[in-house]
Amino acid sequence: MRLRRVNPIKEILRPLGQLLIFVIGSAVIISAFVLLLALLLRPTRTDIDIFQVSLILLPQVLIDGITLGFMYAIIAMGYTMVYGVLEFINFAHGEFVMFGAFAGVELLIWLNAQGVLRTSEMWLALLWLVLAVLLGMSVGGALAVSAERFAYRPLRGTPRLVPLIAAIGVSFLLQDTMRFLQSAINGDFYRTFPEFGPFAQRLTLFSLSIDERPINIAVQYKAILLISFAIIMLVALNYLVNATRLGKAIRSVAQDQRTASLMGIDVNRIIALTFLIGGAMGGAAGVLWTFRFTRADPYMGFIPGLKAFTAAVLGGIGSIVGAMLGGMVLGLLESFAASYFSIFSRGAFGAEYKDIFAFGILILVLIFRPQGLLGGKTTQKA
Amino acid sequence: MSAPVLELINVNTYYGKIHALKGVSLTVEQGEIVTLIGSNGAGKTTTLRTISGLLRPRQGDIRLNGVSTLTLPPHKIVEKGVGHVPEGRGIFPALTVLENLEMGAFLVRDSAEIDRRLALVFSIFPRLQERMHQRGGTLSGGEQQMLAIGRALMQLPAILLLDEPSMGLAPLLVEEIFNIIRKLNSEQGTTILLVEQNAQAALQIANRAYVLETGRILMSGPAQELLHDPRIIEAYLGL
After folding, report:
1. C-alpha–C-alpha distance, residues B45 and A313, integer Å
2. Chain A / chain B CB contacts < 8 angstroms
3. Which of A27, A58, B86, B234 can pair with B90 through a Cys bridge, CB separation 3.0 to 4.6 Å?
């Protein structure tokens, strides 16, 4: 009867493999499409060689897109897991991201004031960063659990629209609470991520020359770190859900709450735990987001939250694997749009139109494939 | 004499404003099969859900081996030994048969013990062993019912609550399921509270019976007596 034991190594390798396929797959498809378009447009353009420009931009666009994709993927986990167990879309999730971001940034600003951040040593700087991420996770997780306990749980069993509106209320409440706190304490409502460590340095991957011009393909340590953090979190989450007793409880609650409780599972605890996990990943994403884009402000969670939600819907809401795929596709599309829109349209459309893609996709998916790319039913394994 | 395995004392349960159970009292003694019969909407399922804590009574008391379970949530009541096979079976369709059975032993952490219980369930339901790796949702109705009962047995419950095990099954399968229920009781000594619309079949295997109508216990007594009671024959046996 040993057949039912899970193989831990397989459970770690499987999500890794899936991520690899998603990253490479969506990168190749989108790149091929853009390059083909550039090739077709080439004869119409006399000002620049559009194909060559596209090619030169490509590596950086890919790296940015993949980084962004991972961020969306970890934020999307919060939406998709909560949806999986409750069929409820927690529109306040972006605010957990924002609170996590502020927690991490405040810690780093404080550390900076103590003078401990002024180090150029990688491992030490990394330690502080990990500390900030962990604090962001705790704050995001604690906030998610409180929101569930005090705002959503009392509304369970009411029509679906009721908790949804409550979530929007929680979202506004949290935004303005943070704005008030920051204004009262710091006089300004936003905070800047302190510069520290050698994260901005670039690691040159390879050089190539196009028309005698040397092009260095380089990655910032920052991007490598962001991607590594995200991979660790996604793999850990997959392992938790698919290979542990707790994960089994989460999956059974997602499938059938009443029967799960008849199996001796404390459904309320599992739901709270789902919020905790989602909120913690959101909080971590917040810290990483400010690490990347340097600014934390009370409204920062809104748009990334909506996009991560789109990613979750795109992949098939309720599915963890789907959210990873959706996040990656969305991140890459956005990065491509931001870079290539203005080139392809002779400057008529700038990078600011990139959001059209995210939300256009949301509408298209909802019309033509509401179950998402990978979604069959909402509550399947992984 | 020791306290009955299960005792309901004047239980009143409401769905919002609807008074679903109006002072239901019943007892189930160790080793008995007790059946609760009644027509649709009489409150049979409500009674079982109240026992397992899915619904809270507004009045009355429920005792397991003499101890009140009124304040306990469902998962604690499971721990106290109530195995509830819900209406519609409640199979996890995406999990395999084996995983479904394992869910039944969720509270057991000792894997050797889980194996022992699995062996027991497979000895009672050899069909489940054949279908071990099939998804729960792909089983036939009868097999799903076996799985639901088997899963509850993984808890080694002090009392097994069966909610309409014959629902939606062909007559031949109904007979098979009822044979298994009888065997569970006689061979494993499982105490059973059986809720059924199929009064004939239920009364034939039960020791005692209660008749529930619009939330009230109308009659009770030894199953054999009720089986021959003209009022029962007219109202429920349709002869």
Report:
1. 37
2. 74
3. B86
* Length of chain B, in residues: 239
Q: SS3 of B64, please?
A: strand
Q: Name the residue among B79, B93, B99 with its Cβ closest to that of A264.
A: B79
CB-based contact, A201 to chain B, within 8 Å: no
Tokens for A236, please give them: 């850990």
Q: What is the per-residue pLDDT across B114-159, written as a single tens digit (0 to 9) for each?
A: 999 999 999 999 999 999 999 999 999 999 999 999 999 999 999 9
Q: Are A329 and A70 in contact (CB under 8 A)?
A: no
Q: Which two tokens stand for residue A18?
A: 């899936």
Structural tokens at position A59: 């590596």
Homologous superfamily of the B1-81+193-239 domain (CATH): P-loop containing nucleotide triphosphate hydrolases (3.40.50.300)
Tokens of B34: 């007790």
Measure A338 CA to nearest chain B CA, in Å: 41
What 8-state DSSP symbol labels residue B56? -
Choose from B75, B108, B117 for mutation: most chain A CBs within 10 A. Answer: B75
Nearest-neighbour CA in chain A from B210: distance (Å):
24
Specify the pairing of strand B208-213 against strand B57-64. Answer: unpaired
**Cβ within 8 Å of residue A91, ≥6 positions away:** A164, A167, A168, A170, A171, A305, A309
A264 closest CB neighbour out of B78, B94, B118:
B78
Query: Complex ipTM, two decimals?
Result: 0.91
This prediction has a pTM of: 0.90
| H helices, E strands: number in chain B | 10, 10
- On whether the CB atoms of residues B161 and B82 are closer than 8 A, the answer is yes
CA distance B185 to B27: 17
Residue given tokens 């951040």 in the structure block: A117
**Which residues of B lie inside 8 Å of A (Cβ-Cβ)?**
52-54, 73-75, 78-79, 84, 86, 90-95, 98-99, 102-104, 106-107, 115, 118-119, 132-133, 151-152, 155
Could you give the C-alpha distances from B116 to A117, A369, A375, B113, B126, in angstroms and in order?
58, 46, 37, 5, 15
Tokens at A276, concatenated: 């905790």
* Domain map (residue ranges) of chain B: 1-81+193-239
Name A118's Cβ contacts closer than 8 Å, sequence gap at least 6.
A112, A196
Whether residue A270 contacts residue A249, with contact meaning beta carbons closer than 8 Å, is answered with yes
A8-39+49-368 belongs to CATH 1.20.58:
no
- The full set of domain ranges for chain A reads 8-39+49-368
Q: Which of B54, B103, B132 sits opposite A252 (nearest CB)?
A: B103
Q: Is A242 on the interface with B (CB under 8 A)?
A: no
Residue of B nearest to A254 (CA): B92
Identity of the residue in B73, B75, B94 whose CB atom sits nearest the CB atom of A379: B94
The residues pairing with A215 across neighbouring beta strands, listed in sequence order, are A208
For chain A of 382 residues, list the mean pLDDT of each consecutive stretch of 10. Answer: 66 92 95 93 85 88 95 96 92 97 96 84 91 98 97 93 95 96 92 89 79 78 94 95 90 92 96 97 97 94 94 91 94 92 83 85 90 65 40
